Structures are given as structure tokens and as C-alpha cells.
């Protein structure tokens, strides 16, 4: 079992972020006798997944929707699958855009280096 501070440290996020995820019903930590949040390994694994979804531009609303569907059990498996497939397709499109942008940038960089090298040779 982990405290909110321990989980925040483990994941490299703030306790405020964890409270926000709780407010958004993305995670529901347990509480100890004193009412303090207590996290299990399963919470940490779930939060790692949530962070990956965030890093790949999934909106909080969609993450909340996925969390809600998950909490409803097996009967929502098809909806969860569709949500994840949609996000996977979005990631593939992002990757294609990034790869094309990388190619264009690489060409520009070569162009500038060539120009600068040419100018250097002319100076000498």
C-alpha cells in the first residue's frame, strides 16, 4: 500500500494531479481508518496506463469514459475495445504526421548546413 505522496513520487507527478484524477473519477483510491488515500499496485499500474494515454493526446473526458466503462465490468468490453481502437488509429495518424514533419525538417537542416558550408568556403 502506498500513500498519495509515494505514488506521486513513483510516477513523477504531483499529489494535486492524483487528486484531480480522483475528482474526475479516473481513479478511486481506497481510504485507511484515518480517511487518507491508500493506493495498491493495481492503482499504480492503472495510473501508468492513464499517463500513457495522456502522453498520446487522449483527452481527459475520453480517459474518464474508459474508466467508467471499465468500472461497469465485462458488459462494456466492446465499447472499451472501440474506444481503444479509435485512440490507436489516432496515434497512428499522429505518427504519420510526425514522420512526414521529420522528413521535411531533415531536408531543411541539410539545406541550411549546405548553404552555411558553402558560405564558409567562399570566405576562405
TrEMBL record:
Family annotation (PROSITE patterns): HTH_MERR_2
Record-linked SMART domains: HTH_MERR
Protein name (record): MerR family transcriptional regulator
Domain HTH merR-type: 1-69
Keyword Ribosomal protein appears in the UniProt entry: no
Keyword list, A-Z: Coiled coil, DNA-binding
Highest taxon of source: Bacteria
Coiled coil: 74-104
Pfam family, one: MerR_1
InterPro entries for this protein: DNA-bd_dom_put_sf, MerR-type_HTH_dom, MerR_fam
